[in-house]
Amino acid sequence: MLCVPGGGGVNALLEDQPVLDFVRQRAGQARYVTSVCSGALVLGAAGLLKGKRATTHWYAHDFLEEFGAVSVDARIVEDGNLITAGGVTSGIDFGLALVARLLGQAEAETVQLSLEYAPAPPFRAGTPAEAPPAVLAQAKERLAGSRRAREEMFARWRDARAATPALIHD
Known about the structure:
This protein is an alpha/beta fold. The protein has helices at residues 10-13, 17-29, 39-45, 61-66, 90-103, 105-115, 133-163, and strands at 2-4, 33-36, 53-54, 70-71, 76-79, 82-85. The strands form two sheets. A four-stranded mixed β-sheet has the order 1-2-6-5, sandwiched between helices. Strands 3-4 form a two-stranded parallel sheet.
């Protein structure tokens, strides 16, 4: 299984050819190719999402389409051997879904109970659709720096693709 996590280092990985080559090579050998949060963007940059249904953190969904993926607003998306999870907390849902796939639902339920995983957040602000407008605006402001960097990166890629299509891995 290949699992690419998300987080603060993802932007640098999107242009790191040795890492992308490694991800492509490992994906070719993996029973499951997976990601959590913005790790899906690394899979996309490696050319592994083209024509596939995938999810990622809510503030990065539109970037999936840059890689030819079908962006799905869900906590977990399964498309063949590709399993992607949304934001970091969906990683627990992803883990349970993977245990169910590998060992059956009863084992996944046992793990869920062992973790005492019964989400009951104290607020209804866990998705953009639920969050009050002021909270959504504040979250976007906090994430703006990383988003700007990604937007600039994708603009460079679009320019490079237009100039020399072979430069970008499809």
